[in-house]
Amino acid sequence: MKNRIPALVAIICALFLLAGCGGKDSDLTAYKGTAYPPTTKVKYIYLSSQAAPACRVFAELLVTLPAAMSGEMMREQLGTEAKKRGADMVLIGQSRQMEDDEGVSFVYYGPQKEYLCNEQWCGWKFGYDAWEEQGDFVNIGFKEWGNENVSFEFPVMLQAAFLHCGK
Question: Which residues fall within 8 angstroms of residue 121, CB to CB, at 6 or more apart?
Fold first, then answer.
């Protein structure tokens, strides 16, 4: 019996250690980046070179948008989230067709530390696991973004980055 007690204690300790490893927060929809005061206006760009030199990327995310949402509604949804997080500017990336309609969601991937958009932007290198599972590419460019007369019959996943350009 004496020999079994230390083994039992060791097993219990190992279980607690393993349980602690599984407790990592994996909720990517919870924003964990720099907290800026909300903004009232946001500008949209399509190239990192369009950002002012002082603009820093503080959030990299994938956005899901439901079917039948107009370009105007897409801009409104993303703009509301961006302003809530303190963004002055949103860098819009590519878009892909989704099979499953997940509604509107914002899935944050980082960065761990904000960086200057003009000098350090390395492209869309986050969320690849979710991105690669999507369907055909969708053109949401200057003519579609914000256009009330444009909508898609399918849900869309959109790449985006929030930039803060103030002090």
Answer: 48, 57, 91, 115
Give the C-alpha separation, 82 to 65, whole Å: 15
The rounded distance, in Å, linking the Cα atoms of 48 and 20 is: 40
Indicate whether 118 belongs to any domain.
yes
Compute the chain's Rg from CA coordinates.
21
Are 87 and 164 spatial neighbours (Cβ–Cβ below 8 Å)? yes
This prediction has a pTM of: 0.82
**Looking at the domain assignment, is residue 1 inside a domain?**
no
Confidence at 32, pLDDT banded by 50, 70, 90: confident
Give Cα 62 to chain centroid, integer Å: 4
Domain range for 87 is 27-164
